[in-house]
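Problem 12. The chain below contains 473 residues. Write out its predicted structure in token notation.
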Amino acid sequence: MVASVLQSVLGLAVGFTNLTALFGPSLSPDAQILLPNDANYSTQLTQRWTDYNAPSYIGAIKPATEADIQVIVTIATANAIPFLTTGGGHGTDDFHKFHGLSIDLSNFRTVHLDPGGNRLTVGGSAKIYQVEKLLSDAGKEFRATLGGGIGSLSGHRGLMVDSLKSVRMITASGELVEASKDQNADLFWAIRGAGSNFGIITSATYTVYDASNNAQVMNADFVFPASANQSFWQIMKEFDDTLPSRLALTAVAFYDRIHDQPVIAINAVFFGPLEEGEPHLASLKALGPSRSNISMVPADALMDAAFFNFFGKDNGACTPNQHINIYTLGLKRIDPPTFESFFAKLDVFWQVNPDFQGRLLLQRFPNQAVQAVPDDDTAYGHRDVKTYMNIEGFYTDRSLDDDVNAFAKSGRSQFANRSGFETLVTYSNYAHGDEGPEAWYSARKLSQLSALKRKWDPDQLFSWNYPLPMQWP
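Solution.
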């Protein structure tokens, strides 16, 4: 891709660019240019969720206005300076080859709700806690976008991209455009599934909905010993075709270092009253959990309520600068023998590597509303995925990288062979980076996406994050 070729040609020259002299005269007074030798440089920038294969920067610019972003893109392009945009900092892609400019959207951390019109507008770096609090207070809900936007409400409300009404974005030409079904409809189609390839989104407007059950949600948690290995996965398989649209399951196998034992835990969320939701959990209750809880909680408290808060605040979902190495894939079906076999291998890996706090994560989100949307309505290519599965490596000893990669990659292949799909399928927002465009976007979408890439980003400026090919096939 042009971006990586450009990087190799520039070499160390990029590191000596005088960012202040180059960009400063054209930026607004409130924009900030930050250099690596500045005091508190890193703390003034949005931190990545994971430091695994992180990018390196010659400096950063925090734009204050959309016009600032236009200026940055235009000047950086004219001077052959690669750039990456940071919104919430929650990416997992491999950026170790990137060395260039960071565009930090911290000043675009805005949320605005029009409750009467059921419209929510979020800035390019808005945090989920901002959205949850605002919606909860107003009695509204929706689910998170550019990769598709999966979540526990998917079966009831669909993907987040299905609720997206419009975006404002800066394109590769430095132009500020609005994209919707009525304006730049081709671009709007493309960003709903492959958005990182087409520009910098400064704000997005969504449809929101009245909160289910007055924003009171059934939250259930069960913990099982390793002896439940076989039976547990069989129960998960039974949900392949029977999961109600308002019930979402998240299962995690991890090593309990406090009690020195592997365990399997599951969180069930039902968007309705307890008396309707609890009967769906009969098989889990009958399996004999070592610990359990079923209760009603406010919808905006779900993240902390899940899994008995085993993994800390927000269950570790928003803690920055962890060393996290993820391999992921989508499943059309659960194959219990594959899970049983992998769990046994994972148990051995945990014991051989005491620093490894990795886990096997399954998100079994219902997809009734997802599949109700015609496949050609958006660029999102994986509406038939039933379970999103991650092999997540959490550890601090970086000398484990090679061993973790070998173990997790082998496990991914094992699951892919029994996934129900003919080829590897991944959710791009979770992807490791080595899977390829067919896995990220699906082969049937790539011809149209490649044509739009040639139109909207012919020089491949936005090709660091799960890049689209310029030609397909």
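Discussion. Residues 1-13 have pLDDT under 50 and may be disordered. Students who got a different answer should revisit the alignment rule from Section 12.3.
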